């Protein structure tokens, strides 16, 4: 836990939240600045700024909890979002997954997806480089 982290303070109960779920490793609560009705955050209790900072055994419950919340909200269309770093739109330096219902075209998450043309030879070289490190 980090004494300065707002999410660690929520986990400890120092800051109130609308808690939806809690286990030994996971805490989930409603977002107080939602993009749509039912927008929730699912966070590991282990403090780490980026996904790569969190041990694997603290990640295993996160998506199942996000799934349960989506089902409880009744969301048929929704986004699961997790940002890492400022230029990737991360504001709070504690790993968190957003479960954002998308009930219509105007509510929920809006996404711009700027695809790029692919050079298959360069893509193959990148594939080989990444695969060798896996």
Automatic annotation (TrEMBL):
CDD domains: HINT_subgroup
Domain HIT: 6-109
One GO term of the biological process aspect: nucleotide metabolic process
Family statement drawn from the similarity comment of this UniProt entry: Belongs to the HINT family.
PROSITE patterns in the cross-refs: HIT_1, HIT_2
Origin organism lineage: Eukaryota, Fungi, Dikarya, Ascomycota, Pezizomycotina
An MF annotation (GO) of this entry: nucleotide binding
Active site: 96 (tele-amp-histidine intermediate)
Name listed for the protein in its UniProt record: Adenosine 5'-monophosphoramidase HNT1
Motif extent (Histidine triad motif): 94-98
Key words, A-Z: Hydrolase, Magnesium, Nucleotide-binding
Source species of the chain: Aspergillus aculeatus (strain ATCC 16872 / CBS 172.66 / WB 5094)
The keyword Plastid is annotated on this UniProt entry: no
Organism domain of life: Eukaryota
Catalysed reaction equations from the record: adenosine 5'-phosphoramidate + H2O = NH4(+) + AMP
Needed co-factor(s): Mg(2+)
């Amino acid at each position: 836990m980090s004494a300065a982290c707002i999410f660690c303070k929520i986990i400890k109960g120092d800051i109130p939240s609308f808690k939806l779920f809690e286990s030994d490793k996971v805490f989930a609560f409603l977002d107080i600045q939602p993009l749509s009705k039912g927008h929730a955050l699912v966070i590991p209790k282990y403090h780490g700024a980026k996904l790569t900072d969190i041990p694997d055994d603290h990640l295993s419950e996160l998506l199942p909890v996000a799934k349960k919340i989506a089902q409880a909200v009744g969301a048929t269309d929704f986004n699961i979002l997790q940002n890492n770093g400022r230029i990737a739109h991360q504001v709070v330096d504690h790993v968190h997954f957003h479960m954002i219902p998308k009930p219509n075209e105007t509510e929920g998450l809006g996404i711009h997806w700027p695809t790029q043309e692919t050079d298959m030879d360069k893509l193959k070289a990148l594939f080989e480089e990444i695969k060798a490190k896996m």
